[in-house]
Amino acid sequence: MLVVLGVFFPFAMAAVIPLLYRVVPDRRIGWFVAAVPLVLFAGLVSILPRIASGKTANVTVPWIPAAGIDLSFHIDGLSMIFGLLITGVGALVVLYSIYYLSQRESLGHFYAYILLFMGAMLGVVFSDNLMVLYAFWELTSISSFLLIAFWYHRKGSRYGARKSMLITVFGGIGMLAGFLMLYSMTGTFSIRETIALAPALKSEPLYLAAMILVMLGAFTKSAQFPFHIWLPDAMEAPTPVSAYLHSATMVKAGIYLIARFTPVFGGEAAWFWTVSLVGIITLLWGSFNAVKQNDLKALLAYSTISQLGLIMSLLGFGSAALSAGAGSDRVLFAQAGFAALFYMVNHSTFKGLLFMIVGIVDHELGTRDIRRLGGLMALMPVSFTLAVIGSFSMAGLPPFNGFLGKEMFFEAAVAISSGNPFAEGGASALFPVIGWVASVFTFIYCMIIVYRTFLGPRQPEKVDRLPHEAPKGMLVSPIILALFVVGIFFFPNLAGAYVIGPAMPAVFPTLSGEPGLVPHIRAWHGINTPLLMTLGVITAGIILFITLRHWRRIYRLPPFRWNLDAVYRGLIGGTEAGSTLITKRYMTGNLRDYFVYIYVFFLAAAGGSLFLTGAFKPDFHMEKIAAYEVAYVLIMSFAALAMPFVKSRITATLLNGVLGYSIAIFFIYFRAPDLALTQTVIETVTTVLFLLCFRFLPDWKPERAPARTKIVNGLIAVGAGVLVTGFALTVKGYDVFNSISGYFEDAYTLAGGNNIVNAILGDFRAFDTMLEVVVLFIAGIGVYTLIVLKAKKGGGDIEGK
Amino acid sequence: MVNTLMLIALILFSFTIVIAVYRIIRGPSKPDRVIALDMIGVNLLASIAVVSCLLETKAFMEVILILGILSFIGTIAFSKYIERGVIVERRHNR
Amino acid sequence: MNKFRKNGETGATAGQFLLNLFIAFLWMLLLDEDEFRVTTFAAGFIVGIFIVFFMHRFFGTQFYLRRLFAIVKLVFIFNRELVKSSWSVIGQILSPRLTIRPGIFRYDTVLESEGEVTTLSLLLTLTPGSVVMEVTEDGRGLYIHAMDIENSKEALIVQLKNFEKAIMEVTR
Amino acid sequence: MEVHMIILTGVLVTVAVYLLLSRNMIRMILGTAVLSHAVHLLLITMGGAAGGNVPLLGESDGPYVDALPQALILTAIVISFATTAFLLVLAYRTYEETGTDDLSYLRRVRRE
Amino acid sequence: MNNILVLPMVVPLLTGFVLFFLRPSVKAQKLVASLSLLSLTAISVRLLLKVRDEGILRLDFGGWKPPFGILFVGDSFAALLVLTTSVVSGLILFYAFAATERRHENMFFYPFSFFLVAGVNGSFLTGDLFNLFVCFEVMLLASYVLVTLGGGRAQLAESVKYVAINVVASWFFLVALAFLYGTVGTLNMAHISVRVAEAGQGPLLSAIAVIFLIVFALKAGLLLYFWLPGSYSVPPAPVAALFGALLTKVGVYAMFRVFTLIFYHDAAITHGLIGAMAVLTLAGGSLGAIAYKDIRVIASYNVVIAVGFMLLGLAVFNEAAFQGSVYYLIHDMVIKALLFLAVGSMVVLTGESRIDRMSGLIRNYPVLGWLFFITMLSLAGIPPFSGFIGKVYTGLGAVEGGNYWLLLAGFLSSLFVLYSLLRIFMNCFWGETIITPEEQRPLNKKKLIPLSLLGALTLALGIGTQAIAPFVADAAHVLAHPELYIDAVLGEVPPGE
Amino acid sequence: MNADTIVEYAAAILMVTGGLMSLVSAIGLFRLPDVYTRSHAATKSSTLAVLLTLLGGFLYFWALERFISVRLLLGIIFVFLTAPVAGHVIIRAAHRSGVKLADISKKDELAEAKERLWQEQERNRLEKEMKHGSDG
Amino acid sequence: MKGNDVILRTVSRIVVFIILTFGVELFLSGHNDPGGGFIGGLVLSSALVLLYVVYDIETVHEGVPLDFKKVAAFGAMLAVLSGTASAVLGKPFLSQTFGYFDLPIFGVTELATVTIFEAGVALTVIGTVETIILSISKDV
Ligand code: NA
Ligand code: NA
Name one Pfam family in it (chain G) (predicted). Predict the structure, then answer.
């Protein structure tokens, strides 16, 4: 139950904060907010030993039991890691934001969004129910959207917010479809039950589709190539948000999803290749592009993309463990999964740290453009130190946790390149190569962060204020993170045993209990391939960093200058333009066109189903035909056919009258006196109405239209006539049932009337008559209002109080 | 025989109506057309009388009367329209 | 003010009563009963009360039962004229060559009341070959369109005089 | 006896649809009027009118024609009258406001 | 005796007449209207519970047993829609109390609204196909008047098209009825169903079904939606909201009723066609929603999209999909009301209707802005708002039925919905504030309350889905098992009469 | 052949006569030169034709079942009463709306009278204007 | 020159009464013969139409000073209420009954509740037709 409260605590606070903000309208509000993740963090830590020992915490609160959608929460090792990150980094970020954000900002909104996000993110990682997970998943997108557009008056913020929303929701919808497919295979929304059923799913036809769709959700959320494009634009958000959502937590929801679904889909070639390849490409593309950025936050964004790719690829490598036969290999592969989680934790620490430092720089100088920065070391020594810690860790240098992670990555990449169960040709040999190249670029941009910002010449003319060291409060959070960066390096196995290790059974349930699943991490493990690779990275990195000026121009060459952003913009712009073009083409606003559509559809659909399905069986049988009936048919046809061609509307109205009166005659032939009576009167009154209205309308002019239009009109008209005739002739010959009318012939005994029609109108079907009276009344009063209530002159058509 | 005569009468009326329809289409003046409509009205009325005899039913007597009434109203309305362009006035201007 | 009672009428009440009787009679006829029934007549009278009450402001026609005979005579004269002129018009229509000379002429009647003038106009219009086009504002002059003014104007005027006489026998 | 009625219905539909596709509002409205004539005819034809007496119990003996379609048509007639009346008035009010009775110009009528 | 069945139609009718006579006093009109709406809601709740307790209800008007007389049939589907109609139209009218100009109020605005509601409820409840036509007409005539009421140039120009096209649609309805009566000789829907089943539907009846499809497609705006964006975007907010919330739903309902109860034997033709039409509708609506800059037009194209989405369920034709559609119908009534009222409020407050002429409204009208935000999320089917569960079930149905193209179209369309509304939200509510506090028109609290209630309703329907779940399940069950409906209607009459 | 049969035959013959007369008037409608002359053919010959037919119907029902159809009688009266009025009103409208008489027409006293009246009105108007002019 | 409407008016005055009587007869006889509320109402309103055409709105209004909108509303409401009455009595909505009564003047007469319903119908028809015509005609 505490778990439920834990998830809903942030939501409750999110609702309270805006109200509280009215009472405490300054940055002190932040302390109330910070209490939330702190309390939750403490709570999680308190159950950490229990989780570490392999137990789980579960609770289910019914939500929509009818649909099998319940708030069922589940904390195991995997969700625990994320829970700790969400609350831990969350607390630090809130703390940082208290000093970072200006008092003038609408802090109430800001913290409400942050708390909303926090709750949603906790929901994502704790949910056992796919639909609930999805619900929280979308909620993270929404809160991210709101936070990116926190400064919504800025165009860039809006652009970034929209982009992230569209891409992540797109992925989310795909993921939902995938979940539904899973449900149709398993009959349950519970993740644990799904995992339990996993072996049986592999033969299901929808298995692959569901897999791809789930990956789509993960990749969009975790900014994997080619969906990564939203993340750089998300940097429009205030820096605490970037640190929290867009590096430490939300973007890792995709990682979580992939890890969570590894037991379901892992061990499949498609999963292995897609996750690994997408990850590795993202890693390369992200790091490569990070180097060319001038905005520090953009650089960090690309670096985040790249490292998310790294983690993703590690998860991909790890999934191979699930199909490999028993033996040391599969433990080795599974260690890639361990590395992924380990790297992810590390990434949260050093990337959070870097974002905070960039935020400090931005805060102090008002710019993040490295072309305007330099030489800040002297002015901001603490920040500089922290930046070095973060950057070097990210570059994979000791004595920082990044080094350990990178080593493990290389190790996994090398391991997977040979002897993986899906190896086809030498494709998997690319993994270590690409990983290495990407690491070189990673090294370069880490150096850029440190050198271009803090070292080199100062450029005071390019910034408009004199920078100082950040306020102490603002430094607290980065310092804590830096402590972790260093601390994990020295005590990696503490994290391994208590935090990462317990997650392994969740990712690799079939391997649980295998020795070596949780590797012993050592900073020094002798001179081996990974170490050599790292040395290579440093060497190549330094050379390339120094010569950056010279080779930088390759970014202007294809395919390096290719920008997927342009694809996105083209897609959006093209869709907008295309839709305008298409829609305005057929939505002409011309009634004639609309009638053409309707009748063409009628001809095609009804005509098709009459003539093409063999339904058409005309019955030309006639009992007897009287000459005078034919005469009236001719009269009416004659009058009708003349109508479109007469020159005056009076004539047309008269002809319409002829039709009306002649119909009355037909009603006589059909033994329908009541009809004949009504028809005659109505026809006259209608004619009078036409005459009354003609006074307000100009006489009609000859119908001017291109011959083509007239021919089309004619063809449609003839088609409609023929089709109705065809239908009617067929219906005439359809003689299966008797009408129910025989019943009404007892009208006198049943309803006390001799006039059957009248008995039907007044009794058997009086309800129709009653409503018809209402229709008539509405029309009458409607005409009255139409005439009496005229639009105000010059009032436009926007009215209202 | 009686029936045959009646049928002949019916056909004659029908011919009249055909010619009247022709007059409606042809015009040339509006009153011509109204006259033709009026003529159609009364001929229909006569036709119904004959049909009633043929079918030996009194069910259509009301229709005959109604048709008489309405063809009168219609003619008056059309005439007034032709004469004044308006058929119901707020206040007769005389 | 009532616009319909232009000519001073002799007792609107009596007129209404007559009209009411007329409606009751009409009612009885409409019901198509085999025999005369007082109840039916009474029912018609009640219906008439409603109608007359509803329309009482329109009331204004006169009903002269006692001059039934004069009416019968008028009808007879009319029918004679009707057949005569019908024959001539049919002849004109069916003659191989149209020799008619239509035209409009004015005729000033001796009749006075609206009813009289109307009756005259109706009778004249009903007989083929002539139609009343306008009544002058004083209600005395009739503009008449004749189908063949050259040959039948004299006959028409004779016909008019006959009608006038017969009408006056009814009304005066 | 219905075949020629059915063909007549087809003719009426043809004319009505042709009128409906006109630019002029009055033509279009006349088109709807003719359409309703056509469908009333169709209803009574489809109701299987052939053979049978007037459905007045006192007037004639059975078999009677199917009275139900007659009742339906009555309802339909009244409703189409109501609609036509409204449409007509709407047409002239639209002409009054927009200054055109040409439907193909109405698409250009946007906010003042 | 189930006279309660007729109340959802008769109460609004009588209210309409009473309001007509109360013309001189707008205050009295509002009082009576409020009381009527409250009682209408109470009646609808009672009806729904009665259906739950007693099964499908039926009321034979005049005591004439089916198939000879007209009857109302209340199953969970109809009762749910009636209840939603009552609540939503009630909230719209409460908004209208604050938003409607006096001269409109004097011109029978409220009576016409009640007649509209009567027609809508009648259409939901009737068990007779010709009576459905008549109920449609009640609704349509009222809508004709409302769409033109006090209109200027643009409004009348669009109204002409709206009325003309609906006249033609009604014509198609009569044509279809003529053919159907000519073949099966009866009008009672259950009885028609029995006879159609007896004849095995066959090609001719399928072809007639296609004409019915055209009729309802025109009413619902399924593929034949050309008339919709124009006419829904011109009238004042409450009218547009009534239209957006109620009118197309009636067509959708009718399509569900007719194609699950009567013409379900030849799915290849009818339901295949419906599926294709739904996909095209989704595509057309999606393109339209992002093609224009007028917020009212954007809202109107969203109506089109929703219609396509709801009919996916019919095309898929399984119980899960039916559940999805029922949920979605209810959701869409609520959310379209909110959307059109919100959009209408924006137009009234700014005097503008194009997104490029509004900016930063959220500072001026924060509550409205957030309500719009909620509307956007709910329309896009994002949990925990009401659109979600319908989407889930529809998607589930499509997956189970193997209709992957329909699934794709349906789910992709929600992205277009989101995009189209994001454009409004970001352009109009975000951005630099251009209305200074001095020139800011006040947003009446009386308008905000119904808006907020609708917003709360969409959230409540999402969070409290469980409350209506049994009813929806029952509705879908009856849709999937026409014999239940037939038994309830014709139980006492030997079929095959 | 009993009396009823004779009456039935008489009725039928009346009807055929009516039909023939109606056709004659239709021919008149076809042949006559202007609306005024055509109106003679249409409104009167055909009225007579209709009256004959209705009378035939009346007789027929009387012969058939001793039924006196008041509606038919009323119809006859109604046609008697309204047909001339209709003719009068149409032709008046024609003249007032300015439909020309055929060339063969002899004279048009009505048009002359209208012309005179118009001149008189014009004179009055001018006089009035002159008066006003002198006042102002 | 201005003419004189004497012929038209004199005849119309008579004709209107015939039409009205006929209309009432149609209304009442609908139960057994062609007719009924609708047709009766329509014929009655066509009589009024004739008056409007022959005279003018104000003159007729002086003769028949009714607000036809209210007539229509009253009629339609009556039709609906007649259905409600049976519901109040515990019968299905719109149940009609009929019986034979010995009335003082009319004798044994068949009275049916449907007549009330039909009266509502007729009033609506009259009210609506007149409302429409008057609305258009007054719109100058
Ligand atoms: Na009816
Ligand atoms: Na904007």
Answer: MnhB
